[in-house]
Amino acid sequence: MSKYLLEIGTEELPAKFSHSVLEQFKSLIEFELDKKLIKFEHIVVTSTPRRIVLLLEGLVDYAEDKIIERKGPKANSAYLNGCPTNAALGFANSLDIDVGELEIKNTEKGDFVFGKKIEKGLSTKISLSSIIPKLVKSLQGPRFMKWGAGNIKFSRPIRWIASIYNDEILDFEFDECDPKIKISNKTKSHRLINEVLEVQNPDDFFELLKRNRVIAIRKERKEKIESLINQASKSLNLKPDLSEGLLNELTDLVEWPDLIIGKFSDEFLDLPVEVLSTVMKSHQRYVPLLLKNKSFSKLDLSSEKNISTTFCVISNGLEESNNNIAKGNEKVLRARFSDAKFFVESDKKVASIERNEKLKSVSYLKGLGNIFQRVERIEEVTKKILKFLNDKSLEEKKIIEAAKYCKNDLCSEIVFEFPELQGIMGGKYLKYEGFSEDVCLAVAEHYLPSFYKDALPSTKYGAIVSIADKVETLISIFISGKRPSGSSDPYALRRNLNGVIKIIWDYELDLPLDKLFNELIDFWKIVFPNLNFSRETVFNDLNEFLVQRIVSHLEEISLSKELIKAVCSSDELSQKRVLNIVDLKNRIKSIMNFKEKDNFAEIQRVITRVSKLANKSDISRDVLSTRDYVNTKLFEKDCELKVFEFIGELEKLFSEGYCNYLELLNLFEINVNTIEDLFDNEKGVLIMSEDLKIRNNRLNLLSLIRNYSLKIADFTLLNS
Fold it and tell me: CA-to-CA distance for 504 and 583, rounded, in angstroms?
């Protein structure tokens, strides 16, 4: 078994590409080797900021032989009286096989002669020399570049390529770079050591680099960085603010991680913790250290209770330079914090109502006015949501006030410099001006959730303003005709609606979105009389989009596909019920609880049998009353009367317009034998009676049972 090592040496790669290229390169090489029938035991694809590395182990020296079957002439042309003709001899000769090895096979177009040819597997070295340059050139990523006079495009200029098969250099053509690259067994050390190293064979490669301050295995680098930060923060009795995203970025910025502790001045602790953290993490790639066991308020304008003046820097430099590196980073951070402090102090001098007025000069979307007008629409959406919720525990004035000021910080200096702080700073500034905490927190949290696993607003006030903001975006974009299509969603409408659904789901808000859409489209029609759109088309598109996102939400929370199909079946009645998110949640919870029962399979089987027979009836699926559909005078046995009485109990359960689904399922459980008796040979009746009136009467009974079962789910789609 052989080993092959490829190293593509480059200028410093962007961190995101350095990480994303690994899976891309791995899948491409696996595909090509599989296509060439080249077997291997283990593959390693890793990267550092200056190199992309491929290591293949347990590699065969020759690909497997390939059996190729080819179709030849018709049988009656190839053989005459059982003897091969020139056509058969010529075909066998083209395959380099004996004529006796030909076979006759029957096809759709008649009998034909077939022959099998064994194509010897190519040398792995020859195959790799053609595969590798093609793969390197096919790698993709954002903002690829050309350099020098060469034609090749890559994320950053390629400076060297090491290609080693066991202990030999595996050469290949790669002459499109400028300057030209010679394929060799040479690699390079850490940039600050700046040595050229000779690799004798693939086994030596990773250790050779380690001795020269390069940890080439990405996973090792990541673990070392995490360990360094955790050990330092533990010794200081602090908590590192280290997200997975920042850890990944740091991993792809250094080849030999070293930890440096820095400090900033106490004078900057009067800045919000989010400002300090954003500057350190997003702009400088430092790791802030938080104080342990301290209460945190999103509305605090100072951070002395939350964050330490100590921070961590992951360096790629030499240890002897650590003091200078620490001082340099502290100097840069002081400048960034001084700017941020100036912005915050300037913003404090401007009232939120003044910033709101400035929104009139900020454009929204073409044809949809400015941001101030958008805020007015958000207020209107908020009022309509409150009307539908009719929640007496909420102070409507506070929620409308939060909606009014939710975008005030878009004209603040700090958000202009740090856009990721929008909403958060708006809430803090309102708190500074003396607004109520409910209003301030609602503004601070109204962008939540901004992605699937993001936190939700912590109060109903914030939840309602968040829904209003997202719904305003949704309707404005749909009305302007810029709806998502395929993978294109430039206005993040899917994410917006997912957020709305998640809030309603978790808070169990009784908010009928379809009715809300209906009223808001009329309002938009009044506000934008010049916008040409079909009211009905927009409404139908919004509802269709809503159903798609609800199904997507159910998939995200890991519900089984069969349960999702059962509660969201595609008929029009079921689709309408899916739009009631709280009702949908209650149905799902009831089914999942009831499925734990031993006799669920029996209940499901009986309802499925009833539903299949009910499909032969003309009765609509929305009919829930026996009146005008069931004639008791046509009953011939007690079992029919008992089923009729069971349907009467179901009618009572739904008479008030609200249903306890567990109670409904319990009724089905109690009466499962009553339903089964209808089909019993002795106690039961023949559903498909020859008497048409009796047959329809019995089918209507079954249809009503089916219709009530559909109130929960389509049991025919459930897998017991």
Answer: 11
Those residues with Cβ within 8 angstroms of residue 537's Cβ, 6 or more apart along the chain or in another chain: none
- pTM comes to 0.84
**Residue 193's pLDDT band (boundaries 50, 70, 90)?**
very high
The structural domains of the chain, with segments of one domain joined by +, span 2-62+123-210, 67-119, 218-348, 355-558, 587-717
Task: State which H helix or E strand residue 42 sits in.
Answer: strand 42-48
- Under DSSP, the state recorded for 14 is P
- Residues 614-621: contacts with CB within 8 Å, 24+ apart? 614/699, 614/702, 614/703, 614/705, 614/706, 616/688, 616/699, 617/696, 617/699, 617/700, 617/702, 617/703, 618/696, 619/699, 619/700, 619/703, 619/704, 619/707, 621/571, 621/573, 621/706, 621/707, 621/710
381: left (phi over 0), alpha (psi -120 to 50) or beta: alpha
User: What single-letter amino acid sits at 257?
Assistant: P
CA angle 97, 103, 105 (to 5 degrees): 145
Total residue length of the chain: 720
Closest C-alpha among 456, 476, 474, 475 to residue 466: 456
Task: Give yes or no for residue 573 having a pLDDT over 60.
Answer: yes
Q: Which helix (H) or strand (E) holds 92?
A: helix 86-95
Report, at the CATH architecture level, how domain 2-62+123-210 is classified: 2-Layer Sandwich (3.30)
Residue 201 tokens, joined: 């064979």
Residue with tokens 């690259």: 181
Positive/negative CA dihedral, 169, 171, 174, 180: positive
Determine the 3-state secondary structure of 329 from DSSP.
helix
Q: How wide is the angle at C-alpha 54 spanned by C-alphas 52 and 56, nearest 5°?
A: 175
SS3 helix, strand, coil % of the chain, rounded to 5? 50, 15, 35
Average pLDDT, the chain: 93
Looking at the DSSP bridge assignments, the partners of residue 48 are 51
Q: What is the pLDDT of residues 329-349, one digit of tens each?
A: 999 999 999 999 999 999 999
Range 355-558 classified under CATH 3.90.1150: no
Structure tokens at 610: 């009833």
Is the per-residue pLDDT at 488 higher than 90? no
Q: DSSP readout, 132-192?
A: HHHHHHH---TT-B--TT----BSS-EEEEEEEETTEE-------SSS----BSEEE--TT
Distance CA 274, CA 424 (A): 8
